[in-house]
Amino acid sequence: RNMSSAGPEGRKKMRECDGLIDSLVYYIQGAIADHEPNDKATENCVCILHNLSYQLEIELPESYTQSIYMQRRNISSNDKTPGCFGTRSRKVKEKQQDTPLPEEKSNPRGVESLWHSTLIRIYLSLIAKSTRNYTQEASLGALQNLTAGTGPMPFAVAQTVVQKANGLPSIRTMLHVSHPTVKKTAVSLLRNLSRNTSLQSDIAREVLPDLVSIIPESGLGSDIVCEITASICYTLYNLTQSSSNNARLLLSADGLPKIITISMNDSNTFSKASRAASVLLYSLWSHTDLHSTYKK
């Protein structure tokens, strides 16, 4: 667990170690099957996998990923943007989202397991069943890492979490836990998921009212609450930017007064949340069909 947080070279060596990732996954599967999700060794295994999934999209060899993601053949050879699952440009991102996702291997080995639906379902199961904060946070964090990029792999993982594995109810529960870093990681994961336009209506329906409910009424209190609030505002921005229906959902959840209050907080300490709230308000105003409702 300590070695897995030793930086890029350490992560690379551990990902390449024959049988290591398979053994970690095998152990966690056994713990879940034996109804022992709070086992300390399970926590250690999940934390290692969390660390090994960090910057996975960038750090895997391009030759490896090209054999899996044939979409790259469609990308202009003139585009030299680094990143093994695709480039960072919006145009390419949209093109990739229109491309059928690759079929999964039925028996993944080693590094392939890190983004496989089997492990994604294990993380969601641990989020739902474990009461250990570190296990919950590491499971959420691994999914956050896997959905952080812009290529086909992060998009496929997001689709699995939201639509194939029905993971939103478990993630939603984590928004209401008292442990601040678990809550922060859950919000960060939702922010990543909310970037995918095809998933936005599902996410808004399932968790938008919950996101609004955990925005503080006034005073942000601490740095971590400020970070959580800023992340919520950017998630709501993603969900409402091109959807009047989702903006109406935000209104019906009484989100507008809270967001206005946050946006007017001019303390330097909380400027991050204030700026995010202002960006969200600016975006909400672009829905001209809602102006009369806003004024009321």
From TrEMBL:
One GO term of the biological process aspect: desmosome organization
GO cellular component terms given for this protein: adherens junction; cytoplasm; intercalated disc; nucleus; plasma membrane
Top-level taxon in the UniProt lineage: Eukaryota
Compositional bias per record (Basic and acidic residues), positions renumbered to this chain: 94-107
Region (Disordered): 79-109
Compartment(s) of residence: Cell junction
InterPro entries in alphabetical order: ARM-like (IPR011989), ARM-type_fold (IPR016024), Armadillo (IPR000225), Plakophilin/d_Catenin (IPR028435)
SMART domains, alphabetized: ARM
Keywords from the UniProt entry: Cell adhesion, Cell junction, Repeat
Gene3D superfamilies hit by this protein: Leucine-rich Repeat Variant
SUPFAM superfamilies assigned: ARM repeat
Family that this chain belongs to: Belongs to the beta-catenin family.
Protein name in UniProt: PKP2 protein
Organism name: Chunga burmeisteri
Gene this protein is translated from: Pkp2
